[in-house]
Amino acid sequence: MTVVSALIGLVAGLVIGALVVWIVAGSRMQRVSERAVQAEALLAAARAETETARAETQVARAETVAARAQVTAGASMADLITPVRESLENLRRASDASSRDRASAEATLTSQITAVQERYQSLEGATKQLVSALSRGQTRGQWGEMQLEGLLQHAGLVEGVHFTRQGTRRDGESAVRPDIVIMMPGGGEVLIDAKFPFDAYWQASTAEEQVTRDEFMRKHAADVLLRARELSSKGYSDGAKSPDFVVMFLPLESLLSSALDADGLLLERTFERKVVLATPTTMLALLRTIAFGYQRQLMADNAEQIRQAGAEMLTRLANLSEHLEGMRRGLDQAVKGYNSFVGSFDRQAMRQARRMHEMGVEAPKGVESPAAIETDLRTSDPAALRSD
Fold it and tell me: Which among 260, 278, 296 is the end of a domain?
């Protein structure tokens, strides 16, 4: 405001001075006119400077207001930035913890993946060894017999009591006798022979093309039927003790299911040859049924033994009762004899003793007559223990 006032005063002084000069120096009009023009120029310049000063003043005011607003906004912004800064710090800490957890999880996952890979390699090696072993017919036969023996044990059947071994397989394709002969409760036998057709089945399982897989599956079904024909030709079921069929045991469920998928009439064809195909599931059901029959027979045998033991006990009780009856009769006779003796003693001896006492004969010890037995003996009925 001081600068503007000074400028305004300066301009006013110049104008007044110019007027005074114009009045006093009238003769010098030309010079005055020139000075007037100059004064007008100066006045215009002063006005321009005045406007400029006003604009600068307004700008200064605006800057002052803005500076005050910035100071106020700075304090408010600091209040706003503080919780944001804290949130960012918490976010950074959470991110660091998450990174550590992720690194730990990745390390754990890596170790687990490594362990799985090792197990897979071990399993792959064991699978190759198993396939190599099962590629030999003799090994397949022994493994099938082991599976059958495990089912027999699981069913509770005991060798030598419930079943016997008729022979073992010399090679993977033939057998001289049935592998297992199960003795039925009450008589009869069930003949079981284990077979393991595996070659075509394995080739079908490892084939990549569906056409090749179907071809090998049909060959597998034909192999199963061939084993059934060979088993039927041995005439195992011709004996009088066995039913008119022989059980052909397949140690894998998939051996039968895949064969049935390839040949839906396989079961009918084997039934016609008096061969029943059995897998571990159906074989265990058959063995459990036989074991249940043994349990029922054992219960019946125990009931008969209990009946016989009871009859024997009743017979012995009847004999004991007869002896007791004889003792009772003997005791009864003894009581009667004793009472007869007491009566005779009282009549014969005591009467004379009393007479002698009346005659003055004194005895150092008195003589008393024994009392008779009046209690009757209880009787029993031995015939109640005898059966009609």
Answer: 278
